[in-house]
Design goal:
Elements: H1 11-23, H2 30-43, E1 47-51, H3 54-64, E2 72-75, H4 82-89, E3 93-96, H5 108-114, E4 119-125, H6 134-144, E5 147-151, E6 159-160, E7 163-164, E8 170-174, E9 187-191, H7 194-204, E10 208-210, E11 213-214, H8 225-255, E12 261-262, E13 269-270, E14 276-280, H9 288-297, H10 314-318, H11 327-335, E15 336-339, H12 347-358
Parallel strand pairs: 2-3, 2-4, 4-5, 5-8
Antiparallel strand pairs: 1-9, 6-7, 6-13, 8-9, 10-11, 12-14, 14-15
Helix pairs in contact: 1-8, 2-8, 3-4, 3-7
């Protein structure tokens, strides 16, 4: 089976982790500080704050910006549930704006329709490695005095207008095992706002400004030096890994030739293909379930990202959200299918995947 995702872990990562273990200094320390600086430099911002995971990054970023109970935060329903759950953590209300059909990202026109006097922030997601329409969303934020949070969990190195995502608002990254770069678990907040950065540092570590001096209520959501050491190596490989993803996607775009399969395209800037997502249109000869079974039986890993909009998850239905809220997202959830695009695919893998898909009829 060709896996849908596979982390690129080599001797360099193993050596870096072993060196930290041998040092005896394994919790948040100098390696974390170095990783924060290097990652912030890569994104093109002044500050990086390393945290335990991508969900923690979203939660802390929202808190650091002052989102609170009674506020509304607009976001996309077509994403991993953590994006919206982080809003619930603030006792704020997630307000879901529909997506664009061709990018799967939040639709600025629908965002405008969803703004109210309670709206405090917009959480946009650079889904599947594709930047959302940053220019349009930034203009909305400026016009309505809203905070922009960028969920960059799937978009390390993606660019809009020549700038890295995570540099426009407050960026929130995940380094989970399947991401474009990994520290196994881990996350990062990126920004140019010193106050947000400092408050994020307090929040990740029990509100501690110095040893045993606690200024605010905080968490234990720190990154370890073990993770940071791995992250430093992965960051060096990131551009190579992203280019491999892009080349694999280009291969698919050229070679997959089946009616009824819509292939992804670069709409707003540099796409880094965390996922390569096909859209099954009405004239495709198989149902999605049949297509998934067909691929699996021929050794091609596949997955559905995502099978339902967030607001149709049981948790959100209990909160009163109902079907029909975002029809484009609901339709996409019924039709999308991801195939492998990770950097460790061989030419033989790629040819087998393309041949398998082209022989579906």
């Amino acid at each position: 089976m060709i896996p849908i995702a596979k982390p690129v872990i080599g001797d360099e990562e193993i050596h870096a982790v072993v060196e930290v273990l041998k040092s005896g200094m394994i919790v948040q320390g100098k390696k974390v500080e170095e990783f924060e600086r290097r990652f912030a430099d890569y994104i093109g911002v002044s500050y990086g704050v390393a945290v335990a995971n991508g969900t923690a990054a979203l939660d802390i970023a929202l808190k650091a910006c002052g989102v609170k109970e009674g506020d509304e935060v607009i976001t996309t329903p077509f994403t991993f549930i953590a994006t919206a759950n982080a809003i619930l953590f603030q006792r704020a209300k997630p307000v879901f704006a529909d997506i664009e059909e061709d990018s799967y990202n939040i639709n600025p026109d629908d965002v405008l329709e969803k703004i109210s006097h309670r709206t405090k922030a917009i959480v946009g997601v650079h889904l599947f490695g594709q930047p959302f329409n940053v220019k349009a969303i930034l203009e909305i934020c400026e016009d309505h005095k809203l905070i922009l949070i960028e969920d960059c969990a799937q978009a390390h190195g993606a660019e809009f207008g020549g700038r890295k995502v995570g540099s426009f608002g407050i960026g929130c990254f995940s380094f989970y095992a399947t991401k474009n770069m990994t520290t196994a678990e881990g996350g990062m907040i990126t920004c140019n706002d010193e106050i947000v950065a400092e408050r994020s540092r307090l929040l990740r570590s029990h509100g501690e400004s110095k040893k045993y001096q606690h200024e605010i209520l905080g968490y234990n959501m720190r990154m370890t030096d073990i993770q940071a050491a791995m992250g430093l190596v992965q960051l060096e490989k990131l551009e190579w890994m992203n280019e491999r993803r892009r080349k694999n996607a280009e291969f698919y775009n050229r070679r997959i030739k089946v009616d009824g399969l819509r292939k992804p395209k670069e709409k707003y800037g540099r796409h880094v293909y965390h996922q390569y997502v096909l859209y099954l249109e009405d004239d495709f000869p198989l149902s999605r379930e049949e297509f998934s079974k067909y691929l699996s039986e021929r050794g091609v890993g596949n997955a559905i990202h995502y099978p339902k909009p967030v607001y149709l998850q049981p948790l959100y239905r209990k909160l009163g959200y109902k079907e029909g809220l975002c029809p484009v997202a609901e339709e996409a959830a019924k039709r999308v299918m991801s195939i492998p695009v990770h950097p460790l695919l061989t030419r033989e893998d790629l040819e087998h995947i393309v041949r398998t898909i082209n022989e579906v009829i």
